[in-house]
Amino acid sequence: MTSRIRSPKVHLRDLAEIIVGGLVLAFPVAVTEEVWNLSVELSFGRAILISCASLLIIAGFVQTSYKHSLTASSQKELLTRVLTVYGVTMLIASSVLFAVDRLPLFTDTLVAVKRTIIVAFPASFAATVVDSFGD
Q: What region, left, alpha or beta, does residue 121 occupy, with left being phi > 0 and alpha being psi -120 to 50 degrees?
């Protein structure tokens, strides 16, 4: 069995896979009281660390998944894919939190951002894995 080199470019089908994958974990995580409480207690610095950890893990998975060399053009496409996965997952997480009335965007913006980061942490991994199945 030969493994083919996958294209790291993001297409419409990829976006659909990212959305579905993100929703798989975003909804169950977003509706837990533990996430709501943690987002109030967690420092913003720790939330940023969670966000950075998400980006690094996604980047590692995408890099190994696409089997590309470290050329400048392929790295730009891989970076685009990583940022697309994380950005779409953050939008999904905030949308789910908004839908369940747990996104205090205008009353407590910092809690809303931390809550979105916490929900996006596992959801971004699910989105990355589901996206990798499509190729």
A: alpha
